[in-house]
DNA sequence: CAGCATCCGACACGATACTG
DNA sequence: CAGTATCGTGTCGGATGCTG
């Protein structure tokens, strides 16, 4: 069952005060639970990657989105960026301890979808069939 | 530590074949890890809600996004929609067993942000200070 | 009450081209 | 190699107004 303190955290995130001020953590969650950020963190959980390695590993991502998301993840202290000042330059991305923690939890979520994805797809077809 | 089978699930999600076909589960994850879907599932974990109750509970959401996300969640078999054919009509939303499972895991994630949110904010200011 | 329809702005995202 | 700059498109998401 779900723990009470977790429900409390959820309620805090749901809350909006009388002036319409939302929880300060929402923007952060938005950034990290983006399609690409999740995949990038999962990829880095495998190990440190160069930029081009990540570009290959995370299938379908554009350079723009990759660099953009990496910047956001670095800003939030989840990803460490290490530059080797050679020519051509070598940049290695790795997870910080905080990032490793989060990436592990996100990967649990991913594996949940791996386990239950078929059932979700079945529900979709049932729903669509019932609509028509 | 992260389990091997979880890493395998992650790699499956990262993969793209030679024809550019992405993993079929990605669209589903995109739908469910949306800003609003996460919050709605968390709200429903507290208990079944009417439409207007959800609208109040999930602070800042518009009617449009609420109905749109509820429809998607219902289509994926995560949320059950029950209509009482009275006048005015009463519609109650609740979690299916599958939805309860997922919502619990998402709430774990939310509570992670509750615990580590301060540190993320601190990392942001450090990063911004170093840039200027 | 529980919504759908419509308009509209903002931004996510991709493709392409260019730089240290 | 590791990005940045620019452009164009599509979707997200809010505001408003209307219906059974």
Structure notes:
Chain A is mainly α and 132 residues long. Chain A folds into 2 domains: 1-31, no CATH class; 33-131, Winged helix-like DNA-binding domain superfamily/Winged helix DNA-binding domain (Arc Repressor Mutant, subunit A, Orthogonal Bundle). In chain A, 64% of the residues lie in helices and 11% in strands. Chain A contains 6 helices and 3 strands, in the order H-H-H-E-H-H-E-E-H. Chain A has helices at 4-14, 26-32, 35-46, 51-57, 63-75, 97-131, and strands at residues 49-50, 79-84, 90-95. Chain A has a 3-stranded antiparallel β-sheet with strand order 1-3-2. In chain A, strand 2 and strand 3 form a beta hairpin. In chain A, helix 3 (35-46) packs across helix 6 (97-131). The mean pLDDT of chain A is 91. At the A-B interface, helix 1, helix 2, helix 3 and helix 6 of A face helix 1, helix 2, helix 3 and helix 6 of B. Chain A binds a DNA duplex (20 and 20 nucleotides) through helix 4 and helix 5. Chains A, B: Residues 23-121 form the HTH hxlR-type domain. Chains A, B: InterPro entries: ArsR-like_HTH (IPR011991), HTH_HxlR (IPR002577), WH-like_DNA-bd_sf (IPR036388), WH_DNA-bd_sf (IPR036390). Chains A, B: Keywords: DNA-binding, Transcription, Transcription regulation. Chains A, B: This is Helix-turn-helix transcriptional regulator.
């Amino acid at each position: 069952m779900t723990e009470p303190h977790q429900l409390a955290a959820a309620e805090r995130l749901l809350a909006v005060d009388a002036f319409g001020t939302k929880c300060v953590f929402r923007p952060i969650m938005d950034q990290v639970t983006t399609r690409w950020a999740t995949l990038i963190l999962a990829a880095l959980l495998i190990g440190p990657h160069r930029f081009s390695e990540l570009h290959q590993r995370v299938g379908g991502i554009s350079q723009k989105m990759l660099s953009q998301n990496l910047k956001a993840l670095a800003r939030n202290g989840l990803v460490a960026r290490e530059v080797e000042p050679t020519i051509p330059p070598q940049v290695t991305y790795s997870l910080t301890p905080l990032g490793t923690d989060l990436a592990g939890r996100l990967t649990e979520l991913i594996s949940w979808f791996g386990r239950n994805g078929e059932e979700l797809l079945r529900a979709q077809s049932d729903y669509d069939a019932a609509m028509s």
